Amino acid sequence: MNKFQGTGVALVTPFNTDGSVDYNGLKNLINHLTEGGIDYLVSLGTTGETATMTKDEKKKVWAYTAEINNNRLPLVAGIGGNDTLAVAEDIKSFDTAGYSAILSVSPYYNKPTQEGIYQHYKHLAEISPLDLILYNVPGRTGSNMSPETTCRLAHDFKNIIATKEASGSFDQFNQIMRDKPADFLLISGDDPVTLPMIALGAAGIISVIGNALPKQFSDMVNLCLAGDYRTALPAHLALIEFTRLAFAEGNPAGIKAALRHLGVCGDTVRLPLVKASSMLEKAINAELDKINQTV
Under which pathway is this protein filed (predicted)? Predict the structure, then answer.
């Protein structure tokens, strides 16, 4: 599980202007992140716009990501949904070559009870060929996975190895850290709270802004993991405005605007998402230039 310590990045899916997957852009992104010192990659999470991708597109992106990564970094695949049996079929049919774990979001829209969430992950844990990382993001799913449910799953299933927590609740983080198994990882799901979460005992972050600033963000995370918060704090504060701008009009429009400015890939997103406004794009570019000038 040490492979999931540090900075993971939830990859964007680059698209050509006609909306097709831009595989050259994806190659550029993977190399950009690897050279920037990222610890592991997450393919086709929320940031990858999976809600608008076909099953065939997902399979091709997963395979291409593994090919380009070429075992340089650990890989995680995002496979989730609100139909338990359908998610289980997707996991069973997944080509695991090159991948170390599956990140699976808590069921959305249906608003299951805590017992329903437990039974959903129980079913997945019993059929998954890879370790599972839970993902709690109430702002998107419409329901919260409680600390009790998280820790119950962590104790009951050895192949449930971590949770990506994006609830924003430090009360919840505290309870998970207190009650989880010693080897179960708490991973930040929100860029701005990574420093305080690591101070609490989190193993790191699955980041969005790391797409654009892999070195700056991973350097800050590594300082935190080493316990050097005095040095990490200025680095953390220097990223706050960029992070705010990156999410100002939703994810991943802002981070794709930054990647376009950096020459990594284009900024096309699929409807119902739209590109960042010209005003926001200018602000993102200016902040990006400011950060890069200080490196």
Answer: Amino-acid biosynthesis; L-lysine biosynthesis via DAP pathway; (S)-tetrahydrodipicolinate from L-aspartate: step 3/4
Q: Where are the domains positioned within the chain?
A: 2-226
pLDDT tens digits along 228-284: 999 999 999 999 999 999 999 999 999 999 999 999 999 999 999 999 999 999 999
Question: Which residue among 40, 118, 121, 135 is the active-site one?
Answer: 135
Q: Which tens digits make up the pLDDT trace of 60-79? A: 999 999 999 999 999 999 99
pTM: 0.97
79 among annotated binding-site residues: no
Active-site option among 40, 99, 118, 164: 164
* Residue 206 assigned ligand-binding role: yes
For residues 42 and 11, the answer to whether their CB atoms sit within 8 Å is yes
Identify whether 135 is a catalytic site residue. yes
Q: Could you confirm whether 164 is annotated as catalytic?
A: yes
- Domain 2-226: give its CATH code: 3.20.20.70
The type of residue at 238 is: A
